[in-house]
Amino acid sequence: MHLAELSLTHVRTFARLEWRIEAGVHVVVGPNGSGKSNLVEAITLLATARSARSRSDAEIVSWSALGDVAPVARAAGRVLTRGGEQVSVEVVITARTALGGDAVAAGRRFRVNGVARRASDLIGRLRVVPFSADDLAIIGGAPAERRRYLDVTIAQLDAGYVRALQRYTRVLQQRNSLLRRLQERRAAAHELDFWDDELSRTGAALLHARAATVAALAAEAAVQYAMLAPADGALACCYRPGVPADLGARVLAGAPVEAIAAELGEVVRAERARDVQAGVTRVGPHRDDVAIDIAGHAAATTASRGQQRTAALALRLAEVAHSFARTADAPVLLLDDVLSELDAGRRARVLAVAFGVDQVIITTPDADRPGRAELPGARWYAIADGALQPIG
């Protein structure tokens, strides 16, 4: 798989960009603040329908568009698969401006092959594995960071997971709202019946998919870490479902979705009184985590920054292998300012994986890291003022 064309209009620093891209390795060189990460963000948006860097969609809209009556940012791309299939994807973000000129709200529209679609229909048409400095949060950040990592990884491979996640999020919000009304004696307990059933059904789908994905990633990440840092000890990743231990054990053992849903339903109903008292749903995949250890110790609290960076790198490399194993078509690799921070050995390991996929887009502030000798046949570009210029 590779991205053959990229078109950006009023996306961050890009007033307008038209980029026809071949398969292979592409290196974008520019100082910090030149728009390298904005380019990677736009490509990731086309793959996942979300930005990993923005608190709101409105932030994606270029400042140059904010004087318009209806500021609009548009990202579009044409994707080619190894099997010869072509698909076009498009994300349009419409913002409105406050009196101070800042974008304060946004609406999103999606198109696949020119036809209006839902976000769930766009996600995964272009598959990417992004490497960035922010990946440290997967190891040392809050559990929500690891849940988000799993959600983005699985969503690109499983449209059913996207729908289950969207439904679960809405059901959780509705159930929590009802719990607060029950606290205030403005609702009846039987009103929870429907939401408990929906929470159990959609939650079971998430638990089942996350357990299988973490198991696959953990095995490959351990291999990658051993090659990246052979003297550090073993890397181990273990899924920690946000459910009681006995149900969690059955989830980890690969119990069928229907069995997980039935037992989760029993747990949710048994916890009703305590949930009402707390005003929130206390059990479910929204409380999941992934335990990540190096040499038997929690990486978040005992590993050095270098070890955490290497662990995150191993997980991303494992994600590449997992994506290919699920689809028989390699994802696009996006290496955003990470190679310049790696030593020669780790850079070589990442590049060995990179040369095994169809397309790699590398950004770097230093044209010597990686150097041209490390990237034979790569195409090089300079980025400045929202434009890409080929360099020899």
What does this structure look like?
This protein has 12 helices and 15 strands. The protein has 392 residues and is an alpha/beta fold. The protein has a domain at 128-328: RecF/RecN/SMC, N-terminal domain (Glutathione S-transferase Yfyf (Class Pi), Chain A, domain 2), CATH 1.20.1050. It has a 6-stranded antiparallel sheet with strand order 2-1-4-5-6-7. A 6-stranded mixed sheet has the order 8-12-13-3-14-15, sandwiched between helices. Helix 12 (344-354) links the parallel strand 12 (332-336) and strand 13 (359-364). 43% of the residues are buried.
Give a short synopsis of this structure.
This protein is of the alpha/beta class.
Summed over residues and divided by their number, the pLDDT gives a mean of 93
Unreliable parts: none
Main CATH class of one domain: Mainly Alpha
Could you say which overall geometry the principal axes of the C-alpha atoms support? Answer: globular
Largest sheet: 6 strands, antiparallel
Instruction: Give the tally of β-strands.
Output: 15
Order of helices and strands: EEEHEEEEHEHHHHEHHHEEHHEHEEE
Topology (SSEs and partners):
Blueprint: E1 2-11, E2 14-20, E3 24-29, H1 36-48, E4 72-80, E5 86-97, E6 103-112, E7 115-117, H2 119-122, E8 128-131, H3 136-140, H4 143-155, H5 159-183, H6 192-228, E9 235-240, H7 245-252, H8 257-270, H9 272-278, E10 289-294, E11 297-298, H10 299-302, H11 305-327, E12 332-336, H12 344-354, E13 359-364, E14 379-384, E15 387-391
Parallel strand pairs: 3-13, 3-14, 8-12, 12-13
Antiparallel strand pairs: 1-2, 1-4, 4-5, 5-6, 6-7, 9-10, 10-11, 14-15
